[in-house]
Amino acid sequence: MSESTMKSENFNAGKGVAPAHSLAGPEDYFSLLKPRVMSLVIFTAFVGMAAAPGALNPVLAAVSLFAIAVGAGASGALNMWWDADIDAVMTRTAGRPIPMGRVPRAEAAAFGGFLSALSVALLALASNYLAAGLLAFTIFFYVVIYSMWLKRSTPQNIVIGGAAGALPPVVGWAAASGAAPLEPWVLFAIIFLWTPPHFWALALYKSGDYERAGVPMMPVAQGETSTRRQIFIYAIVLAAAGLAPFFIGMAGYLYLAVSGVLGAGFVWLSWRVFRSAPGDYGSAKKLFGFSILYLFALFAALLVESLAATYL
């Protein structure tokens, strides 16, 4: 019996077999926060705060950003608690603290629940109730709507569930200004449209993982051909949406140049994925890596322009 099979049996019916005492160190609890995902949330939320009109007290801004980061980490911990059974059978996630038996599921749930309440309360105190409410909704959407419902029930899981990952710039904007007008929702739309091709590129060359775990990601549920075609379609729409901040007066020519060049690159790599032979995942891996650069560069350009407008 393989190690992954034994781990899966330990989490049969969603009931993890936890050690009597936690074997975790600080690094395990930090890992529960999904730090790589959290870093993207912090960055996009910060850009939302910087691009918003008005000025938040620097100390309160730092506390607000910390609260958003804690909320993102809480979502990650609760996601790992709920998904411990499928994490155990996926090579990409089998080394996480719960499948490895270092953190009991109950502890992860309590940890995530505590951080969720702390983050929302802290953001309400440091900024305003609108931002706190949006953060609370983001946590709820990621944990309940995506993790508990969509992820295991529909190949559109990442499409709809991507709304949770797209909300941080709206939360950041609301924290700084007390409002959520059109501009942050344009940033929301960019991340929302970016999420499917980003994750489907990964899912193409990790489809065996999702199939073993019973997760109906697009390549598993509808096949590679359909997934490749949808990646290309989303890439075209995303490249167009990426230009929107310039045309609504939210961004300048630096942003336009970055979004135009990288949008064309995204479409080109997606076309190569679409035209790749079955079983050839080289282009999908390149697209996955490029997609991270694409989103970071767009928001970095917007951040540079926002800071320049404020301080120069």
TrEMBL record:
InterPro entries: Protohaem_IX_farnesylTrfase, UbiA_prenyltransferase, UbiA_prenylTrfase_CS, UbiA_sf
Coiled coil spans: none
Protein's cellular compartments: Cell membrane
Keyword check for Transferase: yes
Organism: Hyphococcus aureus
Keyword Cell membrane: yes
GO molecular function: protoheme IX farnesyltransferase activity
Name under which the protein is recorded: Protoheme IX farnesyltransferase
Pfam families, alphabetized: UbiA
Pathway the protein contributes to: Porphyrin-containing compound metabolism; heme O biosynthesis; heme O from protoheme: step 1/1
Reaction(s) the record says it catalyses: heme b + (2E,6E)-farnesyl diphosphate + H2O = Fe(II)-heme o + diphosphate
Leading EC class: transferase
Swiss-Prot/TrEMBL keywords: Cell membrane, Heme biosynthesis, Membrane, Transferase, Transmembrane, Transmembrane helix
Note: Carbon 2 of the heme B porphyrin ring is defined according to the Fischer nomenclature.
Domain of life: Bacteria
EC id: 2.5.1.141
Bilayer-crossing regions: 37-56, 62-82, 103-123, 129-150, 157-179, 185-205, 231-248, 254-274, 286-304
Family, as annotated: Belongs to the UbiA prenyltransferase family. Protoheme IX farnesyltransferase subfamily.
Its job: Converts heme B (protoheme IX) to heme O by substitution of the vinyl group on carbon 2 of heme B porphyrin ring with a hydroxyethyl farnesyl side group.
Its membrane topology: Multi-pass membrane protein
